[in-house]
Amino acid sequence: MLVHGQPYRTVWLEAGGESVEIIDQTLLPFAFKTVRLHSTAEVCHAIREMWVRGAGCIGATAAHGMYLAARECERDGLRGGSFDRALREKGRELCATRPTAVNLAWAVERQLAAVALVDSGVDKVTVAREMAREIADEDADFCRRIGEHGLDLIRGVFEAKGGKSPVNVLTHCNAGWLAFVDHGSATAPIYAAQAAGIPVHVWVDETRPRNQGARLTAWELGQQGVPHTVIVDNVGGHLMQHGKVDLVITGTDRTTYTGDVANKIGTYLKALAAQDNGVPFYVALPSSTFDWEIADGLAGIPIEERGGDEVAKIAGLANDTEIEVNLVAKGTPVANFAFDVTPARLVTGLITERGVCPANEAGIRSLFPEKAPSIARV
Ligand code: MRU
Hints:
single chain, alpha/beta, seven-stranded mixed beta sheet, four-stranded mixed beta sheet, 13 helices, binds 5-S-methyl-1-O-phosphono-5-thio-D-ribulose
């Protein structure tokens, strides 16, 4: 998508293939800076410290990290089985950086399976490089298709409202292009509606504690010229009670094959408010975000707990410099659960690259029949 009018993706291989380039998302919206990562360790650091974040972006960055890992194995003179074992260990290090978004493990596994098919170290590096590119391209393409399917929903709402006034979409956190390789999941239908000439306005939850809504979603919508308004996290219910939200679209970091949705903390409360007010609550995701092994999201999805400083402090710009200030008295106990699970019964539908389906096993299976064997196994 556009940054100051120039098209960007969130992760790419620098021309010579020596390094992986990313956008340091911790600096946004106050500074736009790209960073080069040269090793698996640097990629792990970038994911753990949330220089890159969001399910699809984490997955694609990890896929590129596996390419750097393959280069390291080759440089160490490893061959065949020892190469694959060392690469698996580096894959484990990548997977340990953040637990909730399933795209990370999915990308690592996909790389390991591809690399194991060839013998020589040089060939393995070539395969890993090609696979990193494939995963990134696929993520972008799937998000684009999510946009096409979600557009039909937005168009339906627009026409039902009389075809004149803007469609008001509420979103939580950042499931925009910054959270993927391009287009985003929750934002793809919004961008598609904008391109189709349908007026859209987005209510952007600020999304404490890290404020991905205020800092990232608002910035990227602004860059694309989409009308939007930032609200604090407690406002959504009030807006819905007063008919100011036509639909909610969020992303997800992991969705079970039964339709339970893990997403940024606070999503569950929005889903409850949406149900109470008869507002459709949609979740947009590429198939890489489905967990085909977990049936019960509440029991099975690991919820990341992060450091208390994210709650106890808040960052912002003062005199052109980003500073951090304390929100609570020194020593105040805080807790920082990064995600919650919205049960499938509260989700109106899932918007995927293959279409929109009900958030239940039968609905998901109807779009992804080839996943049936793994569903049956669990
Ligand atoms: O902690 P983050 O920023 O990696 O969390 C991810 C998110 O931004 C959201 O949960 C998002 O809605 C889903 S990821 C596409």
